[in-house]
Amino acid sequence: MLTRVLADLQIGTERAVRRRILLIVSLLVGIPFAVLPHLDLVVVGVIQSLQALVPVASIVVLACALVMLVLRAWGAAAVLAAAAVAGVLPTLTPTGAFAQADGVACGAEAAAFRVVSFNAQFGEADPGRLAAQIRDEDPDAVILVEATEPLIRALLVDEGLAEALPERSGEVSTGGASGSVILSAHPLRDEDRAPGSAFDQPTAVAAVPGFGDVRLVAVHPHPPIPGARLWRDGLGMLDRWLEAAPDETLIVAGDFNASYAHPAFRELAGGFVNASAAAGPIPWPTWPESDRPIPAFTAIDHVLVRGGAPAEWRSFAVEGSDHRGVAAGLRLCGA
């Protein structure tokens, strides 16, 4: 009898020790994970890369919490579940009342406006397939980053989009990922480029019939790797420039090289509504798109609007690019 009691005590002690160890490990994992989306540090670009993984990693952390429940490690399960929720919440796309920027709420008389945004990856995207996608979307404006003049010419001339999109911003810069262009179905007035990037960030004002002026901004900040400081400073400069822009209706689209998992992007997007809110709070990934088994895992391509509201959103793939394109239907109503 005494032997059995001692054995039970030993088993109980071992279980308590195991639960204590699991709790400590959960704290060591959970606390950094919950804090990660709030770190606005640029010491090393790896922080930004880890932040981009938070939405996917939160599923793994939650699965670990379920394992802890099976093991009856209640404290560890609670810590990991709380960490998963705390980590993923900042990364979600604001929707509903949280998506209203500056009190904008469009009424029934709002003007419909469609935008396509796409990173053409050094101009290597298949022009035929891209043109077909653009034609299907019938957009009022197309934002292309990492565009080249040969690609633009192929779309407008060879693929016959010049009639649907007769207006464009100025000639793009050459070399690598530098070029960006705005194509428009409406009269377009080219203006100074937005600051904050060595890549093209053209701006233009479209005169939309029956509505008025709509400022369009194509954005492509520097990526955080390499150059986390350059990336952060660029987003900050763009944020201040957009905040100072007097336009009642402003559409900002492109490859932001940032998601809601990054504090710098949340700060920039705070005065806008993200068109992806029309698809719900999940940040549907747009990069990297490839034929490899690894799926896209982060949402860095966005269409933001001020003075409007999202009506629909979807993404699409075009061969030759490692980004998914974004097609957004907006309702413009002014500020």
Automatic annotation (TrEMBL):
Q: Which residues form a coiled coil?
A: none
Q: Where are the transmembrane segments?
A: 21-47, 53-71, 78-99
Which SUPFAM superfamilies does the UniProt entry name for this protein? DNase I-like
Q: Which UniProt keywords apply?
A: Endonuclease, Hydrolase, Membrane, Nuclease, Transmembrane, Transmembrane helix
Task: Output the Gene Ontology terms for molecular function.
Answer: endonuclease activity
Q: Which Pfam families match?
A: Exo_endo_phos (PF03372)
Q: What is this protein called?
A: Endonuclease/exonuclease/phosphatase family protein
